[in-house]
Amino acid sequence: MVAATALWRAWADQNLKAGDSEQNIRATLAPKAKDWGRVNYGGTGNYSLRFKVDDLHQIQVDFELSGKMVSATVARTKEDWIKDPDGNLVEIIPR
User: Fold this and answer.
1) How many helices and strands (H and E) does the chain possess?
2) Please, are residues 64 and 49 in contact by the beta-carbon 8 Å criterion?
3) 88 pLDDT exceeds 60?
4) CA–CA gap between residue 39 and residue 90 (Å, rounded)
5) CA nearest 39: which of 89, 92, 93?
6) Cβ within 8 Å of residue 88, ≥6 positions away
7) Which domains does the chain carry?
8) CA 14, 28, 59: angle at the middle one, nearest 5?
9) Residue 1 reports pLDDT greater than 60
10) Can you give the pLDDT at residue 42?
11) What is the pTM of this model?
12) Which residues, at least 6 apart from 13, have a Cβ–Cβ distance to it below 8 Å?
């Protein structure tokens, strides 16, 4: 599994660039993702999009209020998500 994590990190480094718009990031990740959701952070207006790319990996992309990408993180994780009708992640449950 370590190899798969490294491959996803390399893919993210090559395809996701700081300063890209949310629209571009979503278009890039849409063909790769099995599911995705949004996490809003308190009063800052900053937020993240989390994309499940396989059963064990997700890519979290952080955005500033303007909708520009700040960073991307690849993680090996097993989580279940509970989303509201708008696609916001309201609960993340480790398995």
Assistant:
1) 2, 6
2) no
3) yes
4) 8
5) 89
6) 37, 38, 39, 40
7) 2-94 (3.30.1450)
8) 70
9) no
10) 82
11) 0.89
12) none
